[in-house]
Amino acid sequence: MDPSQDSAAPPSPPAQSGGSFGIPAMLVFASIVIIASLAVVPSCWYTRSSLSILHQVPEGHVGVYWKGGALLKTITEPGFHLKMPLVTQYEPVLVTLQTDQVRDIPCGTKGGVMINFEKIEVVNKLKKEYVYETLLNYGVNYDNTWIYDKIHHEINQFCSSHSLQQVYIDVFDQIDEKMKDALQCDCTKYAPGIEILSVRVTKPIIPERIRRNYEQMEEERTKVLISIERQKVVEKESETQKKMAIHEAEKTATVSNILREQKLKEKENAMELQEIENQMFIAHQKCLADADFYSAMKEAEANKMKLTPEFLELKFIEAIANNTKIFFGHKVPDMVLDQRLLVGNFLENVSQQVHGERQMKSDDNA
């Protein structure tokens, strides 16, 4: 929607006598030429010229207008628009994300040390529905009031309530959130159209002498940390070696137990084999003894069957016949006779004993 503009046209120049234009007619003609030339040349995005008729609102912006210094409620979207030259002024206002960089912010700490924040970035956005209200109250450079100046104030407030150690090291990671909360709190209360999305604070610049002290402290702290880590490594290595030794001892003990059990098993197997061999030997010897006993019994029975009077007399005669000594004298026949009589009596007794035993066996069988 175009801003309201006057529709009055310049009056036509009166005709001059003699067929030539007068000075007023030349001025009007020149004005028309200038206006036509300005109408065909669109204005630049951020120009504040009030001479152009056609202007362009870039993407991400909205167009705002002033007429006679008064802000109009008319807000235009991106694109080409027309306005009254010289009467209506135009300004594009960014309504997407923008990053404002606030540089060189000096502040004093609680201990009186002067430090300087080289750069602080504030990511913010102006809500489209609050453009008229924000510009009406704070102008086009609203961010000077609620971002640039506010950052200076909040940083000084923060530094004055904290020591250098806190600002530079201890709570430095909290400055971003504290600045964001402080900015958004006041913007929500006084300029609700401004939305603070994030704040990025760089490390402040401190005096060189103090910075060297911090560097030395950091070096010493690093050395201590390295010593602690080295000690942890040594302890871990010792623990690892201990575990390896325990594992090796357990493995050796396990192997020893296995070998001992193996040897015991071998001895038990050898004892079982020896016992089996002993039993086999005893059984064999018993069989041999039984065989010898049986053979002796059979031989004895055979001998009993052979000991007949006739067989004994035959053996006696053969023994006498094999005698190589011959005795002479009148006593020899008597001796021979006596011996024979003795042997005959002996044989008779033996024959009777054998006959009695056979009789007893026959009775038992009956």
Number of strands: 8
Number of helices: 8
On the 0-100 scale, what is the average pLDDT? 80
CATH top level assignment of one domain: Alpha Beta
Strand order of the largest sheet: 3-2-5
Q: Distance between the terminal alpha carbons, to the nearest Å? A: 159 Å
The oligomerization state is single chain
**Sheet/helix structural class:** alpha+beta
Q: Estimate the global geometry from the Cα principal axes.
A: rod-shaped
* Percent range of helical residues: 55-70%
Question: What fold name goes in the CATH topology slot of one domain?
Answer: Tetrahydropterin Synthase, Chain A
Radius of gyration: 71 Å
Main location: endoplasmic reticulum
InterPro entries: Band_7 (IPR001107), Band_7/SPFH_dom_sf (IPR036013), Erlin1/2 (IPR033294)
Family: Belongs to the band 7/mec-2 family.
GO molecular function: cholesterol binding; ubiquitin protein ligase binding
Question: How would you describe the overall organization of this protein?
Answer:
With 366 residues, this protein is of the alpha+beta class. Among the domains are: 54-93, no CATH class; 95-206, Band 7 domain (Tetrahydropterin Synthase, Chain A, 2-Layer Sandwich), CATH 3.30.479.30; 212-290. 58% of the residues lie in helices and 17% in strands. The chain has helices at 23-40, 131-138, 142-160, 164-170, 175-190, 208-306, 309-321, 332-365, and strands spanning 54-57, 61-67, 70-76, 79-82, 88-94, 98-108, 114-126, 194-201. Strand 2 (61-67) and strand 3 form a beta hairpin. Residues 52-218 form the Band domain. This is Band 7 domain-containing protein.
